[in-house]
Specification:
The protein is globular. The protein is 29% helix and 24% strand. The N terminus is likely disordered. 46% of the residues are buried. The chain has three domains: 181 residues, 3-Layer(bba) Sandwich (FAD/NAD(P)-binding domain); 118 residues, FAD/NAD(P)-binding domain; 103 residues, FAD/NAD-linked reductase, C-terminal dimerisation domain (Enolase-like, domain 1), CATH 3.30.390.30. It contains 13 helices and 22 strands. α1 packs parallel to α7. Strands 5-4-3-2-1-6-17 form a seven-stranded mixed sheet. It has a five-stranded parallel sheet with strand order 8-15-9-10-11, with helices on one face. The chain is of the alpha/beta class. It holds the Pfam family Pyr_redox_2. This is NAD(P)H-quinone dehydrogenase. GO terms for molecular function: flavin adenine dinucleotide binding; NAD(P)H dehydrogenase (quinone) activity.
Length: 479
């Protein structure tokens, strides 16, 4: 049954819209293109407006390129460490120009595949920038102005029964560390480098900072990671963060804890990173990984009754409704969870709801997430820290991967499986640290989503030998 609860400001956007409804989607990232796919398959007339290319930041400058770069770094790291398996290597040479050309090629290819898929479904794709006009027309439809990219300075007027805003977010910039695309870089600018940085200073130790720091160290660059917190990955499981930090240091990374970068100055041959204690770190390049800001300026939100938070994010409820009639929003511009999988699901839910289909509102407590360091970190559900801080009664079990027979065969020494259950035995969370943890987390995601007990999880067969066998073993401990 469709959710019928009112939106954040009491607007009822839930009345089903007839098949053949006109749907306008602003933004072509995961939230936008997945929404377009659902709406087109449900018989709507869909127009998608995107200026930079389909796939948005996730495909063009964020998830796809970064994980492609990380995959290359992992291969280099494994080759460099192959001696443990009895494989003699003569070193690893990195051609950064070729690496980044492949990164950019795969991003363009994925964007093109999305374009073909949408056009096959009959979605009209317009290359331009869109904004909402205030009020409704005399037929109760939304009005949209589109500034076309080609030909320039030409406006197009559209009307739609339903509007979805999925404009994403952009790297946050600090006034004293303005990116120049050459020496001071955001994560969207790294893929233009033709040479491996001699010394990369990474400012910010969250997911983005940790992933790139680990990747560039794996590629052979000297890396210094500047963290304002007591540890890196402050938002992740503390046991997992401890392993990643230890591995980083063992591989030769320098970590500056409990300090902030006050300013970054670029010169012809490097950067000076001034810390808040007065020290200066000299490097060849600096990556600023200090968060993101939503792309919500210039959309006509205020004039159209769409409320935003102090940070500029669009307020939405669990079915992606905004505070304005039949205007929905999805993805990083909403600030719900900055994950491509969440953006995609928000977009699907929005169309199911707007077009009168059955749906389950978004449940963020069952969302799986991953950090693509080496080893990877993946988690789902409630964390051990969160449960204990709220006084929730839980049981926790953890086993290291080093005792797993398949892990021994692959010379895996770092990592673990942790499962959190309620006192009644229901699986409510889990963490995996190790190779391909982003794939291995799926059984725990299913367990959390389906409210399985630890006994049900442990009774399912696993392959011997396999890394997944440790998941079953940890579940048995919680019997």
């Amino acid at each position: 049954m469709s959710a019928q609860n009112p939106g954040p400001a009491g607007h009822d956007n839930a009345s089903p819209v007839r098949t053949g409804a006109q749907v306008a989607i602003i933004g072509g990232g995961p939230g936008g293109y997945e929404a377009a796919t659902v709406a087109a398959r449900m018989g709507a007339q869909v127009t998608l407006i995107e200026a930079r290319g389909l796939g948005g930041s996730a495909v063009l400058t964020d998830v796809v390129p970064s994980k492609t770069l990380i995959a290359t770094a992992e291969q280099a790291q494994e080759t460099a460490e192959a001696d443990d398996l009895g494989i003699a290597t003569s070193g690893v040479s990195i051609d950064m120009a070729r690496v980044n050309e492949r990164v950019r090629h795969l991003a363009r290819s994925q964007s093109g595949d999305i374009q073909v898929s949408l056009e096959t479904l009959g979605v009209q794709v317009i290359n331009g920038w869109a904004s909402l006009k205030p009020g409704l027309d005399d037929r109760g439809r939304r009005q949209i102005t589109v500034r076309l990219a080609e030909p320039e300075d030409l406006d197009l007027e559209l009307t739609a029964d339903i509007v979805l805003i999925a404009t994403g977010a952009s790297p946050r910039e600090l006034p004293a560390a303005k990116p120049d695309g050459k020496r001071i870089l955001t994560w969207a600018q790294l893929y233009g480098l033709d040479e491996l940085p001699e010394h990369l200073v990474v400012v910010g130790s969250g997911v983005t900072g940790a992933e790139f720091a680990g990747a560039y160290r794996g590629l052979g660059a000297k890396v210094t990671l500047v963290s304002s917190r007591d540890r890196i990955l402050p938002g992740e499981d503390s046991d997992a963060a401890e392993i990643i930090e230890r591995v980083f240091v063992e591989r030769g990374m320098f970590i500056e804890r409990r300090t902030r970068a006050e300013a970054v100055r670029a010169s012809e041959d490097g950067v000076d990173v001034t810390l808040n204690d007065g020290r200066v770190i000299y490097g060849s390049h600096c990556l600023m990984a200090v968060g993101a800001v939503p792309n919500t300026e210039g959309l006509g939100l205020v004039e159209s009754g769409v409320e935003t938070t102090e940070s500029g994010h669009i307020r939405v409820d669990r079915v992606s409704r905004t505070t304005s009639y039949r205007v929905y929003a999805a993805g990083d511009c909403t600030g719900v969870l900055p994950l491509a999988s969440v953006a995609a699901q928000q977009g699907r839910i929005a169309m199911w709801h707007a077009l009168g289909d059955s749906l389950d509102p978004l449940k963020t407590d069952t969302v799986a997430r991953a950090v693509f360091t080496s080893p990877e970190v993946a988690a789902v559900g409630i964390s051990e820290e969160e449960a204990r801080s709220t006084g929730r009664k839980i049981n926790v079990a953890k086993l290291p991967l080093a005792r797993n027979p398949r892990a021994k065969m692959q010379s895996v020494e770092d990592g673990f499986v942790k499962i959190i259950s309620s006192r009644s035995g229901i699986v409510i969370g889990g963490v995996i640290v190790g190779p391909h943890a982003s794939d291995l987390i799926f059984p725990l995601t299913l367990a959390v989503h389906s409210r399985m007990t630890v006994d049900q999880l442990s009774s399912a067969f696993t392959i011997y030998p396999s890394i997944s066998g440790t998941i079953s073993e940890v579940a048995r401990i919680l019997h």
